[in-house]
Amino acid sequence: MSTEQQVQQSLSxxxxxxxxxxxxxxxxxxxxxxxxxxxxxxxxxxxxxxRFGSSALFGMATLMFVYWLKQDYMLAGALGxxxxxxxxxxxGALYSRYLAxxxxxxxxxxxxxx
Length: 114
Known about the structure:
By secondary structure, the protein is mostly helical. It has one domain. Helix content is about 80%, strand content about 0%. The chain is built from 4 helices and no strands. The longest helix has about 30 residues.
């Protein structure tokens, strides 16, 4: 049995609720990262969708690229997760800069560690 058939078989053995739980966990994590003080609900939803969408886009693109290179599926998953997290952070930072320029603040002050 090839690796792709093994992956397909293992994914078909996973219950649907587990796949939904994984997606929900990712969404909740992005909601936690996108939360800023003083944001209205509409802006918070936009920030979550930008972060979650970019995380999924970058992660899946990397996953598919590594599969295309005929590498190990565990390597593809690890790289997909890492690139997805970096992509979400980059998209969140770019969106924050865009909003700051739109409001007229110019440069965004650096974030102070808490």
